[in-house]
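dumping the sequnces here before i forget
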Amino acid sequence: MDQPSENPNSSLSGSLGVRIHCHPKEAAFDQALSVVGQALKAGRETYLYLLDQGVEGLTHATLMGWSQTPLRCFACALALEVHEIEAPEWVIPSGLTLLSDILLQCDEICVYNPAERSS
Amino acid sequence: MKSAFTIQPNVHPEATRDACRREGAFPVLILLRSLCPQDLQSREGLRVARAFQADSRWQVSLGVLEDPVKASSHLEQWIQQDKSLAQLLEGLAEPIQVCVEESSPDTVSHPSHPSSSLIKHLDAAQWLELGLAQGCILLF
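..and the predicted 3d for all of it:
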């Protein structure tokens, strides 16, 4: 599993919800994974939701390395269909209701928006 | 208390903002780069806006990072193509919010303009206030 460096934003305790909307080629994607990795390392309850072009990051080596961790990983079902990506077994395809729940229920949320248009 | 912050593109992670959860619905700003009906990101943004609007736990606001004149024109096109957009806008507490630079001609605020009531112009200070009032900003 990747061991990310200390992140100043992950100093809080409690559950963490991370929404990644950017493409895996963007720096924000790596930054998001760094925050998730740090949270997992700290033993925090962590939820990750991949939206739109973010689902293309499902094959990212760091993310794949978390399949055996307590990370709860979800991917937008519509985005998976549009991008013709099959989610690995440990990733749960889900709708926006779940994203809504994650953003509302987690003690801390991090949102990684895309820097550029995908269309 | 809930801690929330957003990270804007190409901004250092320390440039974040903490926001306290308000009583009642959680404020979210769906920020669109454009209101062009052909833009896939804009469509995705409105899909999320519709989903969150249907959930009473959210207080949804819509903002556009587009020139107000262009935004108004795009909005008219979109409403003509998709009548359900008007329903979405009616359900918002505020009209679509656009930041108007001081130099911009305020042509779309004229009452005779069809979409004038659907777009609210904010100056830079109001725009900043809008952002600070949110618990979460989702950019599309």
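The longest strand of chain A covers residues 16-20.
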